[in-house]
Amino acid sequence: MAVQVTPLNSALVVVYQAGLTALGAPIKRQKSLNYLRFDASDQALHDAAHALFGLSQNPVLDVLYRKTFELTEE
């Protein structure tokens, strides 16, 4: 059985530090940018995330790239 893969959605998730707890642990928040181009390079997405969040005073902790696909049998 052959499986067909159909791209549905993609999202760039940026995790940033929004402050510190009373014990000094980082408070993490995240922001998602949805419906990105599937053919965008990983380097371009990484650079875009750091360029956008470089305008913020909050440091970037992680950059995640999530893709969603539909798998169907032919």
Descriptive overview:
- The protein has 74 residues and is of the alpha+beta class.
- It has one domain.
- It is 16% helix and 55% strand.
- The chain contains 1 helix and 3 strands.
- It has one helix spanning 42-53; strands at residues 3-20, 26-34, 60-73.
- The protein has a 3-stranded antiparallel sheet with strand order 2-1-3, covered by helices on one side.
- Strand 1 (3-20) and strand 2 (26-34) form a beta hairpin.
- It is elongated, with a radius of gyration of 16 Å.
- The mean pLDDT is 93.
Give a quick account of the main beta sheet: strands, pairing sense, barrel closure.
3 strands, antiparallel
Assign a percent range to the helix content.
Answer: 10-25%
The radius of gyration over CA amounts to 16 Å
Mean pLDDT: 93
What order do the strands of the largest sheet run in, or round the barrel if closed? 2-1-3
List unreliable stretches of 5+ residues: none
List keywords for this structure.
74 residues; alpha+beta; three-stranded antiparallel sheet; 16% helix; 55% strand
Task: Outline the fold blueprint.
Blueprint: E1 3-20, E2 26-34, H1 42-53, E3 60-73
Antiparallel strand pairs: 1-2, 1-3
How would you sum up this structure in a few lines?
With 74 residues, this protein is an alpha+beta fold. It has 1 helix and 3 strands, in the order E-E-H-E. It has one domain (3-73).
